[in-house]
Amino acid sequence: MASHSQSHEKSDQPRTITITIPSTRKIYQIVALTALFITTLVLVIKGGAHIGRKESALARKQNMNYDSDAKYDSDAIKYKEQYSYVKYKVPEYTGKKARATFVTLARNNDKNGLLSTVKSVEDRFNSKYQYDWVFLNDVEFNDDFKKTMTALISGTVKFGVIPKEHWSFPSWIDQDRAAETRKKMKEEKIIYGDSIPYRHMCRFESGFFWRHPLLDEYEYYWRVEPDTKLHCDIDYDIFRFMKDNKKKYGFTISIKEFMKTIPTLWDTTLNFTSLHPEFVNKNNMLDFISNDNGKTYNSCHFWSNFEIASLDFWRSEAYTKYFEYLDNAGGFFYERWGDAPVHSIAASLFLDRNEIHHFADLGYFHGPFHQCPIDDVFRLGNRCACKPKDDFTWKGYSCNTKYYDVNKLKKPENWEDYKK
Ligand SMILES: Nc1nc2c(ncn2[C@@H]2O[C@H](COP(=O)(O)OP(=O)(O)OP(=O)(O)O)[C@@H](O)[C@H]2O)c(=O)[nH]1
Ligand SMILES: [Mg+2]
């Protein structure tokens, strides 16, 4: 680049034209300064856009009442000042969705156990559809918990506190009798036998989680517990699957219950159904939960740490009255009734058997059991990261063989190789 100037010193003097040609060094300086100016301009514009996106993404999320946003954003800018990169952005799902949410009951100290769990659910499924996630706790979630979960989850995240009356002893419970049970169960080394919070948890999951106002707007939920994992990709909208196929209760693993925790649950259920035979579905699945046409409970239940189900089922008159009846009988405290047998008995009796679904294709882990599809079509097709030899589905202590038999479902070709 050349610059030039004209001089008019004396009119009678011959006109001289001076052309100043900058030195090579100066040219480099000008080029460098211009480049620096343009780069800075681009970075400022890009940085600004980044903050805008970040804020709008965060603004979508609810209950973000922690004060570390500013620091998080300024860290991002600092990084941006040094390097430039284009971040991959998961496309927002614009298809038709179900009214559905994930729901997790957790304590603040479950945060670490939830990190890889939530990440696996997001990576395998939810980042594609961005469903909401509701966290419930008997005390307030702290800012660290909220901040971490909100960052991991693609949908709107909500945090709720459980009302006291849903997490305490009902007035009619005889405290001495309840304490006596806990003492006895401790002596008998029954797992969680002496725990009060565990009993509140089981009662809450049986009769109250679906009554929390944060769940009012939804039709389906997927229950997720800390320290669980999804092994396979889910490439379809599982909530729409439930709705489109008229399913009300979906499970992965079924198993036998420890009968010492529920000695009178079945008889209490029979008393209820004799009072309310109208609630028992004509096409029920009694043959899954009883081997003698209802005389006794065979202890088979869906492992409720994983559930994809209809909230309207729990809201139904049949289930509401059933829970009320059980709660009045006091077995959540005088024994140690779990939400898994309670949910499973209700689903088996009050639903049409065709409304219950076994998800054989997901791959799931809750210690100590895995569901790992032994069928290559599922395991390889869904990019499952698990070992089929670990699969619990067809083992003796599982109830899946029974479930497949009573419903006349086709088992995978090689299922007998995985019985032991
Ligand atoms: N807020 C709250 N959540 C709880 C409490 N106890 C259990 N939970 C939650 O309730 C769910 C079930 O509890 P777990 O301890 O996993 O019960 P479990 O699956 O029968 O037993 P594990 O085999 O130990 O996993 C989990 O999501 C826990 O985070 C509690 O006292 N408060
Ligand atoms: Mg658990």
TrEMBL record:
The active site is at E307. One of its GO terms (biological process) is protein O-linked glycosylation. Keywords: Glycosyltransferase, Membrane, Signal-anchor, Transferase, Transmembrane, Transmembrane helix. The chain crosses the membrane at residues 27-45. It is found in: Membrane. Pfam families: Glyco_transf_15. This is Glycosyltransferase family 15 protein.
